[in-house]
Amino acid sequence: MIEEFSIALSISDDCEASIYTAKVRLSEDLTEALPEVSASLQEAEFIPDPPVVVWTEATHSYTMRPREIEISNIADRDEANEVVAVLIERINSIGF
């Protein structure tokens, strides 16, 4: 279960507009949960070595590693907070 995290925004390199990538740093190691997270998502791909889950949903691309989640195409801090809150809730509901 994810209990503590921090969000940092960086401007995407491949875009002229102010579009951000959110990096969510996790206090927990989710290595064991990555296959379960992948199985719960449509069109997700789990890569075991190094462990990572990648998927696209709506306008965002996600990359989930054991202690970090990257989310692309973020407009601002408010959107980052909303998208991350929904994602954390989904991951925690899996019950790993």
CATH topology: TATA-Binding Protein
Order of helices and strands: EEHEEEEH
Number of helices: 2
The end-to-end span amounts to: 7 Å
The main sheet comes to: 6 strands, antiparallel
Radius of gyration from the alpha-carbon trace, in angstroms: 13 Å
Q: How would you state the average pLDDT, rounded?
A: 92
Number of DSSP-assigned strands: 6
Helix content: 25-40%
CATH class: Alpha Beta
CATH architecture: 2-Layer Sandwich
Helix/strand structural class: alpha+beta
How large is the share of residues in beta strands? Answer: 35-45%
Catalogue the unreliable spans: none
If strands are numbered along the chain, what order do they take across the biggest sheet? Answer: 1-2-6-5-4-3
What general form does the structure show?
Answer: globular
Protein traits:
96 residues; alpha+beta; TATA-Binding Protein; six-stranded antiparallel β-sheet; 2 helices; 6 strands; 40% strand; globular
